[in-house]
Amino acid sequence: GDSVTQMEGPVTLSEEAFLTINCTYTATGYPSLFWYVQYPGEGLQLLLKATKADDKGSNKGFEATYRKETTSFHLEKGSVQVSDSAVYFCALTNTNAGKSTFGDGTTLTVKP
Amino acid sequence: GAGVSQSPRYKVAKRGQDVALRCDPISGHVSLFWYQQALGQGPEFLTYFQNEAQLDKSGLPSDRFFAERPEGSVSTLKIQRTQQEDSAVYLCASSLDGRGTGELFFGEGSRLTVL
């Protein structure tokens, strides 16, 4: 079945540091890939997505590129802020399945 | 508000009790999903509706779990004879996309604690 493996956390960075959170997946067919973020006390919300190979999703300074050859969708941000502290989830949705499969989440803490 | 609404936000049940969790999706959203999230883990799929039709219930852990969406809008997840292992956050999500492949909009979840 489909699966998503995320870099284990927690991750602690200083403000303005570079962020990478690794995500790899296993899926049949051509899934769409997503990053969701959960800020403290809030529900999950979409951060960015990519629907086909080589697409780059971007939002709020975060980027991720759909790499079919390495089955990866790593999340990056050049300069993190304290307000980026949250739990980040990588997910895939297979066109034929409807449901999404999530990774276990990576907790990011950014210190001033 | 215009987001996905779940109730109750917190529920404490004694082992063996039945519970019902409600989800009010975004108006007009065709797809509705239920997920179970254990502490420190990602959401695990339970079941999926397209309008009133339950298209996939492969993630329901046992026949004690039952979900319905009779009019294609509000959905209820029912857990009968609750067990301690049912303790988790139950997330509801809806999507405008009828195929379930678009962006998911999540509620804040219902946290169930079974004593």
Short structural description:
The complex is a heterodimer of chains A (112) and B (115). Chain A is mainly beta and 112 residues long.
Describe the model.
The complex is a heterodimer of chains A (112) and B (115). Chain A is mainly β and 112 residues long. Chain A is 0% helix and 50% strand. In chain A, the strands form three sheets. In chain A, strands 2, 5, 6, 10, 11 and 12 form a six-stranded mixed beta sheet that branches. Chain A is globular. The mean pLDDT of chain A is 93. By secondary structure, chain B is an all-beta fold. Chain B has no helices and eleven strands. Chain B has strands at residues 5-7, 10-13, 19-24, 31-37, 44-50, 53-56, 65-68, 75-79, 88-95, 105-106, 110-114. In chain B, the strands form two sheets. In chain B, strands 2, 4, 5, 6, 9, 10 and 11 form a seven-stranded mixed beta sheet that branches. Chain B has a four-stranded antiparallel beta sheet with strand order 1-3-8-7, with no helix packed on it. Chain B is globular. Chains A and B meet through strand 5, strand 6, strand 10 and strand 11 of A and strand 4, strand 5 and strand 10 of B.
Features:
heterodimer, A: 112 residues, mainly beta, B: 115 residues, seven-stranded mixed sheet, four-stranded antiparallel sheet, 48% strand, globular
Q: Give the DSSP E fraction of chain A (strand runs of 2 or more residues).
A: over 45%
- Structural class based on helices, strands and sheet pairing of chain A: mainly beta
- What is the string of helix and strand elements of chain B? EEEEEEEEEEE
The overall average pLDDT of chain B, rounded, is 93
Order of helices and strands of chain A: EEEEEEEEEEEE
Distance between the termini of chain A: 41 Å
Oligomeric nature of the chains: heterodimer
Question: What radius of gyration of chain A results from the CA coordinates?
Answer: 13 Å
Low-pLDDT regions of chain B = none
Please count the beta strands of chain A (DSSP E, at least 2 residues each).
Answer: 12
Shape of chain B: globular
**Sheet having the most strands of chain A:** 6 strands, mixed
